[in-house]
Write the structure tokens for this entry.
Amino acid sequence: MDKVHGNTSGLRPAQLKSLGNLYRRRVEPGRVGTPELARTLAELSRDVRREVSVLIDRRGRVLSVSVADAKGAELPALRAGENRLAGYHLLHAHPKGGALSKGDLSTLFLNRLDAVSVIEARNEGQPGPVHTAHLTPPGTVGEEEDWRILPPVPVYQIDEFDLGAQVAALEEEIARASRTREAKKDRERALLVQIDQGEFDAEERLEELGELARTAGAEVVYKELIYRRNLKPGTLVGAGKLEELTSKAYHLDADLLIFGQELGAAQAREIEAATGLKVIDRTQLILDIFALHAQGVESRLQVELAQLRYMKPRLLGAGAQLSRIGGSGGSAAGGAIGTRGPGETKLELDRRRINDRLSFLEKQLEGVSLRREERRKSRERNAVPVVSIVGYTNAGKSTLLNAFTHAAEEPRRVLAANKLFATLRPTSRQGYLEGIGPVVFTDTVGFIRDLPKDLTRAFRATLEEIGDADVLLHVVDAASPGADTRLDAVNRILEDLGFVEMPTVVALNKADAAEPGTLERETERTGGVPVSALAELGLGELKEALADAVSAVQRQELAEREEAREVAAQYR
């Protein structure tokens, strides 16, 4: 007997045999079914008191028989192509009557079936009307935007609907729409999801996720803040919400789903399987931005090290994810978000090869750290004060460095762009402070809240530069709605690194674009100096504050040296 899928417990051998005989039925190609098959399904459904489903391909063959509803029916695991439907339709009977259910329509949409048809089983197993639904092309606006439900027909007319012609027309329309979109689309289209578990800054986090996505090269077509106190173990947001997101992606022509929360490997796989979309999380997005912007040898080494550390625990069963990371050439080379990698190797490696690569990169970075240490010692011998510029990413640090050092043209000009993480390696330029003399200003990599620990470790050599500064210049984007939370996020990172007690001057940048009330409040709270690096406003006052801070440090160092000499003299 042929295998019957689903819950067959309690069925008699004769019933199982009747179900198995369904495999021998044939349907005329391009038709939903036959009146004889519809009667048999209705009789069997009433007899076993459960829904009975058959999956039929375009050649009219029965591929599977299931004692289950549409969601539980046995369906092939292979997904349809982007411009094609699945190539089979589902015909099943409702033992208690009733038209197409929500589960029927969800199965139609999520599996891109050619059609779903329901036979209403009446008393004594007589077949009633047949209800059929098929998909609509992306972008269709109407009462049922994912599908079209056809008027019910009597069972004797079930073989009169030309499903083959309908499918051919629908696939042609889908392909035409896809070609039109591809001609217009020059970057990935992304859906963003941020889960609100009661955080006061959940909306701000969603906006920041949008900034990260745009910096990575994506076009954000939809974003949603989902409140959920308790996360679902497998999918975080539940199957129903994933179905809604799949529908959004279908009609908005999106191919990327980005979560603001870090996803485990199993969670990412489960969400990808449920939606058919490429799924990445915030950490992977940040790593990808670093890979996109990495220019020097040092930056590339650091980014590759961080990516390998992130991917290593996700090796087991990561499947297609490992084939994503390859040599990076930026978006111009076709690298998609979540696929870029600055290294020369692909991450289709076993643990031994990854560990070897990690050891090699760490040794290379140790050499970088030693060379930077020599440059620091040279500055110390020359007794040149150092001011490290720190702050949240895209706060205007590089623009302020250019303004301080008058580096308006290449090669002294530092890259300053209105995007996140434009600077990935420390850059030093010499400037001048009245009353102090020559000063070295060092621009550092921008910080971000919840900085991935793999990035913190990989950029250890970069962040060590902060500890050798005499004064920190903390640049805050005063025009940002979340200026206070971003300032606190940077302070937490500095505290974790052990630099929070260093002398610090706060620059409230973009003051010309800030709300007056916000600027006044932040000035009072932080004691910062309002400036505009781009318009070069307030730079004189900021330089005076920096000169005072450097003088205080020099006086303290002088006092400590005098005290040390006195102690040494006493011992002599």
Summary: The radius of gyration is 32 Å. The CA atoms of residues 187 and 218 lie 6 Å apart.
